[in-house]
Amino acid sequence: MRNRLIAAGIFCLGALTLVAVRAQQKPTLTALDYIEIQQLANRYAQAIDSCANNGYDYADLYTPDGEFVDNITEEGFAKHGLVRAKGREQLAAAAGGGSLGCKNVGWKDWSHLMVNHVITPTPDGASGRVYLVAIGEKGPRDVTRYGGYEDQYVKTSAGWRIKKRTHVRNKAWSNPLLQSADLN
User: Fold this and answer.
1) What's CA 162's distance to the chain center, in Å?
2) Of 16, 24, 60, 184, whose CA is between 20 and 30 Å from 134?
């Protein structure tokens, strides 16, 4: 009986140690997670450029309570971020759709490109940073970097979604000495 109690105690101590070690380990993502998050960024560019499904394809890339934050305009930058759209209807409108009906999309003659996407595991899912490059805004040969996006991603029953996307200036990133000049 005594040997069984000692064995049970050792087993419990080992199990608790394993739980403690795992709790201290950094979160990880699978290769498939990285691919799915990268595809989310690619679908974002295509959905916003095309105002697909009246902007709802763009909105559906976010969680139901997802938000788009402006930290690139003068107003947004001065406020350290300004929520411009939250929830499906506001996000569809932000893409030019919803009640706006895709009639006055501000970027109809140019394309969004998401480049140099860096994805980092977090306890809640993942975070990401990606440069935003616009092609064709000022003519067919124009290529301009418009800061980038800082994202929070979560995995839902429908797959990976954007919880929060913040449009940031170039210099808002980690080392202003290494960034190009602000575009505003």
Assistant:
1) 5
2) 60
Q: What are phi and psi of 56, to 5 degrees?
A: -75, -25
List the one residue out of 23, 4, 25, 26 whose CA is nearest residue 15: 23
Cα–Cα distances (Å) from 116 to 38, 131, 132, 154, 165, in that order, read 10, 6, 9, 20, 16
Quickly list DSSP for 66-107: EEEEEESSHHHHHTT-EEEEESHHHHHHHTT-GGGTTSS-TT
Burial 104-132 (b: 16+ CB within 10 A, else e): ebeeeebebbbeebebebeeebbbbbbbb
Q: Which residues contact 49 (CB under 8 A, 6 or more apart)?
A: 107, 111, 112
Count of residues in the chain: 184
Which token pair is 2?
């005594």
Cα–Cα dist 149/173, whole Å: 10
pLDDT in tens, 32-75: 999 999 999 999 999 999 999 999 999 999 999 999 999 888 89
Query: pLDDT digits over 92-136, tens only?
Result: 999 999 988 888 787 778 899 999 999 999 999 999 999 999 998
